[in-house]
Amino acid sequence: MKKRTIKNIKIDVDKCNGCRACEVICSAFHAVPKYSSNNPARSRIRVIHDPLRDIYVPVYAGEYTVAECAGRDKYVIDGKEYDECAFCRAACPSREEFKEPDSGLPLKCDMCEGEEEPLCVKWCLVDALTYEEREEEVEVEEEEAPDEIEIGLETLINKHGLDKILDTVEQLAKDKG
Amino acid sequence: MRYAETGINLEIDLSRGNIEKVATDPKETELYLGGLGTNTKLLWDRVPPEVDAFSPDNLLIFGAGLLCGTPATGCNRTIVSTISPQTGLMAFSMMGGFWAPELKYAGYDKIVLRGKSPDLVYLWIHNDKVEIRDASHLRGKGAIETAEIIKRELNEPRAQVAAIGLAGENRVYYASIEQGRSSASRGGIGAVMGDKGVKAIAVRGTKDISVARPEEFLALCNEVLEYIKYREEHPIPGVMPILAGLGSPQEMKIHDEKWHTENFMWGNSRTRRKGFWTEEIEKEWTETMEKARTRLISCFNCPMKCGATISMPGLPTYMMKCFTKLTYTMAAYSDLDFGLRIAQKATEYGLDGFSAPQVMAFALELLENGILSKDDFPGMPEDNEGRFFYLLDMIVHRKGIGDTLAKGTYWAAKEIGNGAEDYAHNTIKKHEQLPLKLSMLNPIYFLMYSTGEKINITQIEGQFPQAPFPSREAREEFVKDWIQVPDEKFKQYFLDWEPRGENSIPYYPTVQMTCEIVDWQERMHYIDDALGQCAGLSSFPLKPPYHIHNYPKFISAGAGIAMDEEKLTEAAKRYRTLVRAINIRRGMRRKDEKPPENHWKHRFPELEKELLDTYYKFKGWNEEGIPTKETLESLGLDYVAREFLERGILSDDETAATDENREAVTETANQ
After folding, report:
1. CATH match of B237-432 with 1.10.569.10
2. ipTM attached to this prediction
3. Is residue B148 within 8 angstroms of chain A, CB to CB?
4. Which of A35, A55, A124, A127 would you mutate first to test chain B, the one with the most B CBs within 10 A?
5. Quick one: which of A38, B5, B156, B618 could link to B515 by a disulfide (CB 3.0–4.6 Å)?
6. pTM assigned to the model
7. Pick from A38, A51, A124: which is nearest to B71 by CB?
């Protein structure tokens, strides 16, 4: 049996007051040495902020994508059009967000490893950000084995067709039985 | 390496279009801290008293507080300093929001503007790149509208924009600078910005701000956040709701306006409406506010939610905080719906929400009393609310009588004559104040109003309760965890303060105690104004998270300046005295240091004289309110002493100015 921890920051945009304390503490935590400097442009969370249209969306950085995505849909919120990009969690070649401002290297949220909870959550006194952690127990062999067989079988089916595989399995079962 | 600050000021000569980045002296920071402190030093050094508000030689300084841009919670204020067109004295208005930290991240502590641009321009500051850009297409645009247009044309939604509206462009003496949810309103600094031909300053920064001792600094920030949470759960019992918690008065959140509407005066500080707040009104106003308010919002790095987004049907969205919610309503004897509608327009015009409504009510009072006639208001609508919208436009466009009213009640009354001056009865040092007319003289407030260099009777108060608590038990309970006191004696002063009897106002707190209380409250405000800390988490509310005992630690760990309570107190006293020195050099004297004549009904001339005499002495000022040579030298302000002697403001052999000198000074000031 193996335990796996799922970490998540739940975002409630209705509660966000737009103060950007999350950006402040994130950039301070990740400074070297720790807390030695502050610069929200280096933060791994940012608040998309358009007060006159009541848009307050904290977004934290996800995986880096090496290529631009195909989807660039438009979203209309309260009459204003937003590019899908604006709310994306990934750093990618086509956008500046979640990259170190000077080196251009991508940034990713690490849930403030070593802390009890991500510090953006701790500093969000209005509770727009809450930390969720759940532990999942996984039985390594039982769960992983079928996956492997499944993948293997699927490859075989793709190659020889389902009927042929079923016939073969039947044949083998008879032989062994 | 400089900590907390960048060590660079941006100097812009608008007449020549010259931009310079100037390294500042760290020694100055140690002496004057930053923000208001170093702004004041620049004004003293470079704006002599002969320079008036609308001279190209007047400076307009946008200073970020010393700790802005660090993680210090609620530290986000821009301190804008200049010479006020209305008072002729130094103005230092402040705004919260997001602008000051952004300036720090761009790499600058201050923007110092001098000269005048021949054409309307805006400034675009993006890290090292600084541009003066044409703003002719923004002429006449609203302040919020301008910010939106600029962000769009720069394609920089994250730029922070401080802008003026038409009031600033047309040099209305009480024009503000607006920045998102906040504004620097008092003293007419928006008029100076307009006079300099600057429509807006947009800034975007992506650089680091460092602190000297990181772990220690963060621990202090976490303590403040913990305390904010604690106070949220433990509001102060027995005081009105707006004083029970933290933050700037939570006007956007609370619906119970009984206290404001019944204790403050309506019109131009004219009538108190006891019994106004009925269930019906409460229901109606609550509905108006609930419908208008989209969200409660905060300034940079602050959880307090003092502001709100307001959307009135059919009008563009704007943001508001604090008492402007009621100023237009009460000036016009109208309702909240009207107040929120006209405030939308006034915010776009960029007007001080305290002065503007009073000036409009003043004009209508003059009309009602035959001092102005119908001919002075051509085309004015008949209905009450229509008249206010009409006046707003006349003032901002400076049309007809609006041109006179644009100077505020003091100057307008002088120009109008014919007895108008009797109606301009709510100014201190020529500047309109909150409409309060009270009964019994309050010695603490008497001194704060008289001697406050901010020339604004709100947010100069703070850490000492505004009134005695009714029972000894309640007072004992209050002092139990009163950690903010600089000295234990203040607890005793408060414990012995009774609502009635021997130990009640006006003779208690005693004159000496009053001086000490005022000095403490003032000290905290001046520290905030140098650090860029919002008063809402410090000098303004009772039992705040920032106080004299943890501030030195913040400065030491943040800015790397060795600091203790004594040194901090002295620094605050130094630049506080320098603000006064600027005003003294511009002719301010004891005769100017008084609250509105009818502010209190019951007055005590002898006590008032004693209060002023004792406070002047306590502060080391002579009987004219001029800091003495000894005081100045003890604070390292020898250069001020020298100039005072040269100008005959002080004389060589004595500390008090003679009558002869005083006359000479008055003459100089009048020239």
Report:
1. yes
2. 0.94
3. yes
4. A35
5. B618
6. 0.92
7. A38
